[in-house]
Amino acid sequence: FIGEGVSDASTDNATNNVGVGYQSLSALTEGDNNIALGYQSSDAITTGSANVAIGTSSLGANTTAHNNVAVGTSVLQSLNTSSQNTALGSSAMSSITNASGLANCVAVGYQAFQGSPSTTTGANGTVAIGMNALTALTTGASNVAVGQYTLDACTTGTQNTAVGESALSGTDDGASNVAIGNSAMGRGNAGGSNTA
Question: What is the pTM of this model?
Answer without folding.
Answer: 0.90
